[in-house]
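Before the break, one more example. Copy the sequence into your notebook; we will annotate it together after we see the structure.
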Amino acid sequence: MKIKIGTRGSKLALAQANLAAQAFQRQGYDTELVVVHTRGDQNQTASLSEIGRGAFTDVFSSMLKEGSIDVAVHSAKDLPTTEDRDHFFCLPRADARDVLLSLKNKKINLIGTGSPRREAAIRRMYPNAQVLPIRGNVDTRIRKMKQGECDALVLAMAGLIRLHFSDEEVLLHPLPVQDCVPAACQGIIAVEGKWGEAVNHPATAVAAKLERSCQRLLEGGCTGGVGCYFDGATLYVQKEGRMAKAEYKGRESIMALVKKVTG
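Here is what the structure looks like once it is written out:
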């Protein structure tokens, strides 16, 4: 059987789709990539909080229903966090941390990010720096930094790893999860559609569901500055710059952490 894999057309989306294709091929399936342009790709001016998480994923739901694709591959953090979108499978998680990118010998005064969560954390970590909004794929943001629009950027480490990023002009400063809590499911590739079960990584799937549940309790969409990360033992949460962590011992752990950052 040939598995038709729906994906966006960016370099990162295609890298992730190819990882999914390789996983299916190891299970004996043939694969075909079906590239789709989403409304999020078409709107490069509005902020992510304005266009919403579904801007990059909604079109795939109808394609799955009509059978024009067999699975859809996304960055799991781009999926809407409503319970009806919890039914996806996961590839093994990559490094979930955020990373600050800066130019060599350049003082950091202006930091670019399109994420309220990252902005809230950066304002605590770099109180003397200004934060400004920036959109675009990885290459576009780095080009803007080199052109002087900002001195540094905050991006996802997983994306840089998957793109095999290397630039001797650019320094990478990974941000500890306790200082900048990753977005729920950051570093996870989601595979929507029943055929995704063939490539599912159980431990990653458990973390994804836990983090999405936590995010809902924190009322976190793109606008809330919310982070949730589970490393298999400890749960970290962030809301609007307030952070907390605890050993995970069931739902009561989530409730206690939510109270710490919202109370």
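Residues 11-26 form the longest helix (16 residues). The chain is about 35% helix and 25% strand. Try to locate both features in your own notes.
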